[in-house]
Amino acid sequence: MADAARTAILPHFRNPALLTEDKGIGRFDPVTEADRAAETAMRAILAQYRPEDAILGEEQGTKSGTSGLTWVIDPIDGTRAFMSGTPTWGVLIALCDATGPLYGLIDQPHIGERFEGGFGRAQLTGPRGTHPLQTRATAALSDAILFSTFPEVGTPQERAGFEAVRDRVKLIRYGMDCYAYALLAAGQIDLVIEAGLAAYDICAPIAVIEAAGGIVTDWQGGPVHAGGRALAAANPDIHAAALAILKTIRHG
Questions:
Q1: Binding positions for Mg(2+) (predicted)?
Q2: SS (H, E, C) 192-231
Q3: Where in the sequence is the domain holding 177, given as residue range(s)?
Q4: Of the residues 60, 149, 155, 247, which has the maximum number of CB atoms within 10 A of its CB?
Q5: Binding site membership: which residues?
Q6: CA–CA separation, 243 vs 165, rounded Å?
Q7: Final residue belonging to a domain, choices 115, 132, 149
Q8: From the annotation, which residues make up the binding site for Mg(2+)?
């Protein structure tokens, strides 16, 4: 599925003829011909090999299944980055049951990096070969690196929670889309905090990060595979420190 998505997407990346539309959902929410082509390609493979499984995809919605398993797919997570030419977008694929993600994949076709987690696997395959994924051991917020896609996180109340953590960390960077979660799993950063996510934004990152030793919850410490407010952390200590702050904020 990831290989098929790469084939469908790469001819469109940094192509001046790329066709982009606004979905018209709130603030500018683009979809491109590459998004649609990649999801169509992935669904065709599932129809051939896993017809009994359900599918939840960003562009084509839900297909019911009978197996109790659901493929949660985002053909291009970070379409704004994709249309702008930055390589922080990625293909997200997760296999879930009723309890949440069992396996996840974050694929960056332009860079050629693939992050996988689940079924005993936690690995990065890329230009430098294949290596295990392992999250960092940072314990103190004052030593932590925090990423988020947008500085204007969610509602004003949610933004206040994010900023309360932001003001206590060593370094904050923005605009990373799903690549932020991949870097957390790879041991490069410590925290990702976001709000307003859909299931297809977070299921694959959950599986990859948890397989690498990290933790992903909502802002109250509960499951987040259905979407919403996500706190991804490299280890229990840094997760507890950030969560303690987020819990004190009235999020509305």
A1: 58, 74, 76-77, 201
A2: EEEEEEEHHHHHHHHHHHHHCCCEEECCCCCCCCCEEEEE
A3: 141-247
A4: 149
A5: 58, 74, 76-77, 201
A6: 9
A7: 132
A8: 58, 74, 76-77, 201
Confidence band for 26, pLDDT divided at 50, 70 and 90 = low
The whole-angstrom separation of Cα 211 and Cα 81 is 27
Domain end position, chosen among 112, 132, 152: 132
Give residue 195's pLDDT. Answer: 94
**Among candidate residues 60, 76, 56, the one with its CA nearest the CA of residue 5:** 76
Q: How far apart are the C-alpha atoms of 78 and 90, rounded to whole Å?
A: 7
CB-neighbour burial class of residue 138 (10 A; exposed 0-12, middle 13-18, buried 19+):
buried
pLDDT in tens, 190-214: 999 999 999 999 999 999 999 999 9
Characterize the bridge pairing of strands 70-77 and 61-63.
unpaired
Q: Which residue has the tokens 């932001």?
A: 166
* Together in a domain, 77 and 109: yes
Q: Return the axis-axis angle of helices 236-247 and 156-166, rounded to nearest 10°.
A: 140
Same domain as 101, residue 148: no
Using the CB atoms, write b or e for 30-61: b if 16+ within 10 Å.
ebbbbbbbbbbbbbeebeeebeebbbbbbbbe
Cα dihedral sign for 48, 96, 57, 146? negative
Percent above pLDDT 90 for the chain? 86
